Amino acid sequence: MASDHPVFTRAYGVLAGLGERAGLGDLRRRVLAPARGRLLIIGLGPGHDLDHLPDSVTSVVALEPSESMRAAARGRVAATVRRGVQVEVVDAMAEAIPLPDDSVDAVLVAYVLCSVEDPAAALVEIRRILRPDGTLHVLEHVRARPRSLIRVIQAAVAPAWPRLAGGCRVDRDTGALLEGAGFDLSEITRTSLVTLPPVAPTLVGVARVGGPNVGQVAPPRQSGV
Questions:
Q1: pLDDT tens across 122-177, in order?
Q2: What residues make up the domain containing 195?
């Protein structure tokens, strides 16, 4: 079980709320729009993802190992249930998802793979529980390009950043991890959010298991970088 950090939970809740109003809410809605059926959310946090579920999502399983984050999300969980969507919140880690093989139609990773202790193991688990025709919905900040100013900034803050940001690794190469796990990234766009430079480079879109490009996946499409 992960350590709980109530102070970080409160600070993150404030930042997440500001981010929702500054455009992250629109990105969450865009990333989730194609989701359908049973959705697994990796890292529920304060629950903002629940505010942007499309009507095609019929039920949600949400992993959240932090007790204080689960408490922060209770209001949004209750509101989602009142809208007729079943929500089950589970105290579990992404590296050991307590679900059967091929049991969900869609998975959301939104600002979470940066803080997972073993992201490669988490992606193996995501592939295991995702149905063959399922979708992985991605909204993740990533390592900046070599020799860019933001990459220099990331390198400078990387040693201290996890202690300040709940275990977040500011320079994780999540795109390479997704490719290595066998996901086709041809529907993923790379963009840049200007709100906070160390976490500005961002992958947005839908990844799929297999497909004709696996093994030779093209880099994410560029937009606004």
A1: 999 999 999 999 999 999 999 999 989 999 999 999 999 888 887 899 999 999 99
A2: 6-222
Amino acid making up residue 66: S
Q: Is residue 217 part of a domain?
A: yes
pTM: 0.86
pLDDT tens-digit profile of 62-84? 999 999 999 999 999 999 999 99
Q: What is the CATH number of the domain that holds 187?
A: 3.40.50.150
User: Does residue 147 lie within any of the structural domains?
Assistant: yes
Q: Give the C-alpha separation, 40 to 13, whole Å.
A: 21
189 is a domain residue: yes
Q: How far apart are the first and last CA of the chain?
A: 37
- Number of structural domains (the chain) is 1
Please, where are the H alpha helices in 20-66?
A: 25-32
pLDDT of 17 strictly over 70? no
| Strand ranges for the chain from DSSP E | 37-42, 57-63, 86-90, 104-110, 130-141, 183-184, 188-192, 201-209, 221-222
Asked whether residue 1 is assigned to any structural domain, the reply reads no
pLDDT interval class at 37 (50, 70, 90): very high
- On whether the CB atoms of residues 109 and 171 are closer than 8 A, the answer is no
Tell me whether strands 104-110 and 37-42 are parallel, antiparallel or unpaired: parallel
Pairwise CA distance, residues 150 & 154, whole Å: 6
